[in-house]
């Protein structure tokens, strides 16, 4: 059983890869639509590169979207609104008005029965004409309308808008009629009654009913403009896809998507889609396994790449299902930007290619979509060679906008053949895409916390000497702090020349000796003249104190939640070497005693990256050259050669990805920099008195 568990542990990573790969395939299968694809790809004003196409069945020729939209807009503009007439309002208000006038007729001699009848009849005529709540000019529904439908007793009749009263004009008409009939006694009538109380809207706008009627009219707009008969030739091989032919081909493609459920084996569709998804992910996995094994071996890195691809495919699929949003608003360039920041340019571009191919399966105008997004993504990767300030990402977003716009205009010129036919409004979606690219900045922080990544921005922040740990080092071990600064500057210069991340090397060098804050006085750079606490310890205890600065530094770094990439510098800057000084002294004093070298050895591990290897080399070389009495060029070269060769012979660089060329550049750079640091200064003459 134990042997089985051991073997399972050895293959755990492969089991995880298989699980992650299967989960990604399953999720992508759910996201990507399952309908069959039209077998032909074509471009407007480009040659037809397939065989001569014959219509396989009868199908209608669909109108262009802009024509359909124009006709529907025309229907909306010509639509005559419906107003429901409430006949009870006229009966009730006229009756109440008549009773009111009869009640005050004793006080007003001019209100004779015939006058009351005339005023009541006038109010009835107003209601017969119709009263609406607002004036037609102020009513949005009646704007630019000359007629409306009056619905009464389930019958609709068309009447001029000019014949309808608003509540204001109805009151004015009734008031004018009363003034004409009553003359001098009109003011007395106003004091006895309020004419406005008998004015009420009896034409009501039913929004739901009008919406249904308008929808019926819009739906009645024909979407087609002719038919193509089965067996009819559509286009010859090599013919140019003219706008008319393009319309017919698009109609065939649309009718194919409608008929796709007939006479098709559902299982074959499922199998085909699975094969496409597996093929896309497989080339990504193979790329990582062969060319980026450091990413392939790290579960977090592999999970992050697959998750990012799935999120991008899902976002694009979600947007493509909503007609009011253009698919190009999805900031696909975020994917290569994030991978460029956390990994490298090649991985970013390769993942972009895989993602574009997956989305291209269901994106409209597949070729255009894939072409435009790959160009914009590659430009984004090349433009973002560094991310030290927020302005770098802003410039990258600007380059994405320019890339999309230029490629879109180029393709439109080929397809349309004239500038007037280009849909300039599409540029607005590209601008929105560029703005959304700026979301990469907060996403960097989120993914750093989720997956434990470290970006250049974070490294620059951690390199600030006001960080708590660095401030602690400067106050408690000032000599070590100056030593760390020296190592950081030298490591940054070397990494710039051999390649690598100079920000990582600089930050790692600053923190590599943070463990010396535990007992700073036991390290020579922090000791005052004549004071050496090692004189009170035996050699084993002294070696243990020196070695413990590595293990204590790791604990301190984890306590302050430093990234693991920086902790690697702390744990590996001495590798598995020995505390040579105390080991040699102990060996000289006990020549006949068996000595366990592990008691004087650092716990390791040995450095694995260029950055950690360089810091290890510089750490030993800087300390050795500082101890030289005569810092001449020859002495410096000799020390550097010996120290590097010693590390090579001891196997400390066996796991590092340093080449012989890199080691040569390291030695040359350190010789140059240290000669500049320890250059001979002139002696100033004394002034004669």
UniProtKB/TrEMBL annotation:
UniProt keyword list: Membrane, Transmembrane, Transmembrane helix
Transmembrane segments: 12-32, 267-290, 302-319, 325-343, 348-364, 394-414, 429-447
Database matches in InterPro entries: HD/PDEase_dom (IPR003607), HD_domain (IPR006674), HDIG_dom (IPR006675), Metal-dep_PHydrolase_7TM_extra (IPR011624), Metal-dep_PHydrolase_7TM_intra (IPR011621), PgpH_phosphodiesterase (IPR052722)
Domain HD: 480-624
PANTHER family: CYCLIC-DI-AMP PHOSPHODIESTERASE PGPH
Protein name according to UniProt: HDIG domain-containing protein
């Amino acid at each position: 059983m134990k042997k089985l568990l051991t073997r399972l542990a050895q293959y755990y990573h492969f089991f995880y890869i298989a699980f992650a790969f299967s989960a990604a395939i399953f999720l992508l299968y759910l996201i990507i639509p399952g309908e069959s694809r039209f077998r032909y790809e074509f471009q407007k004003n480009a040659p037809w590169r397939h065989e001569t196409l014959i219509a396989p069945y009868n199908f209608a020729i669909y109108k262009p979207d802009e024509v359909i939209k124009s006709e529907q807009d025309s229907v909306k503009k010509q639509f005559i609104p419906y107003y429901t007439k409430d006949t009870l309002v006229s009966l009730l208000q006229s009756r109440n008005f008549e009773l009111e006038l009869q009640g005050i007729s004793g006080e007003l001699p001019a209100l004779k029965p015939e006058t009351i009848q005339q005023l009541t009849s006038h109010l009835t005529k107003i209601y017969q004409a119709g009263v609406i709540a607002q004036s037609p000019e102020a009513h949005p529904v009646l704007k630019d309308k000359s007629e409306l439908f009056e619905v009464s007793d389930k019958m609709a009749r068309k009447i001029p808008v000019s014949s309808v009263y608003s509540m204001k004009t109805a009151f004015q008409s009734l008031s004018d009629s009363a003034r004409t009939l009553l003359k001098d006694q009109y003011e007395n009538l106003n004091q006895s009654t309020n004419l406005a109380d008998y004015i009420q809207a009896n034409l009501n706008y039913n929004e739901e009913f009008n919406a249904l009627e308008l929808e019926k009219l819009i739906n009645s707009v024909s979407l087609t403009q002719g038919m193509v008969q089965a067996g009819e030739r559509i286009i010859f091989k090599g013919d140019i896809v003219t706008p008319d032919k393009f319309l017919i081909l698009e109609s065939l493609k649309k009718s194919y998507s409608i008929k796709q459920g007939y006479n098709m084996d559902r299982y074959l569709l499922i199998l085909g889609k699975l094969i496409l998804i597996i093929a896309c992910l497989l080339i990504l996995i193979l790329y990582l396994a062969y060319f980026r094994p450091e990413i392939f071996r790290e579960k977090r890195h592999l999970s992050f790449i697959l998750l990012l691809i799935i999120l991008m495919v899902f976002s694009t699929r979600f947007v493509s299902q909503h007609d009011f949003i253009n698919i190009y608003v999805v900031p696909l360039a975020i994917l290569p930007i994030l991978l460029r920041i956390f990994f490298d340019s090649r991985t970013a571009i390769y993942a972009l290619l895989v993602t574009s191919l997956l989305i291209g399966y269901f994106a409209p105008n597949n070729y255009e979509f894939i072409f435009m997004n790959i160009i914009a993504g590659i430009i984004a990767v090349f433009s973002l060679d560094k991310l030290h300030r927020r302005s770098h990402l802003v410039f990258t977003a600007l380059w994405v906008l320019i890339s999309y716009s230029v490629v879109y205009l180029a393709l439109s010129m080929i397809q349309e053949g004239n500038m007037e036919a280009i849909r300039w409004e599409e540029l607005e979606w590209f601008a929105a895409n560029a703005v959304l690219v700026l979301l990469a900045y907060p996403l960097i922080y989120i993914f750093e916390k989720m997956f434990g990544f470290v970006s250049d921005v974070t490294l620059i922040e951690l390199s600030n000497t006001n960080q708590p740990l660095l401030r602690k080092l400067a106050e408690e071990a000032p000599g070590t702090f100056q030593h760390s600064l020296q190592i950081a500057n030298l490591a940054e210069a070397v990494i710039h020349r051999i390649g690598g991340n100079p920000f990582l090397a600089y930050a790692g060098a600053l923190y590599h000796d943070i463990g010396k804050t535990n007992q700073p006085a036991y390290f020579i750079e922090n000791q005052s003249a004549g004071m050496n606490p090692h004189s009170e310890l035996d050699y084993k205890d002294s070696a243990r104190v020196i070695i413990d600065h590595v293990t204590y530094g790791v604990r301190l770094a984890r306590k302050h939640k430093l990234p693991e990439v920086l902790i690697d510098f702390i744990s590996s800057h001495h590798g598995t070497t020995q505390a040579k000084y105390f080991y040699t002294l102990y060996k000289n004093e006990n020549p006949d005693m068996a000595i366990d070298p592990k008691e004087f050895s650092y716990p390791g591990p040995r450095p694995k990256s260029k950055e950690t290897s360089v810091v290890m080399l510089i750490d030993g070389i800087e300390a050795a050259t500082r101890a030289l009495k005569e810092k001449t060029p020859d002495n410096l070269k000799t020390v550097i050669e010996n120290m590097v060769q010693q590390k090579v012979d001891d196997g400390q660089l066996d796991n590092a990805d340093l080449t012989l060329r890199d080691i040569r550049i390291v030695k040359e750079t350190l010789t140059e920099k240290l000669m500049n640091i320890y250059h001979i200064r002139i002696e100033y003459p004394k002034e004669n008195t």
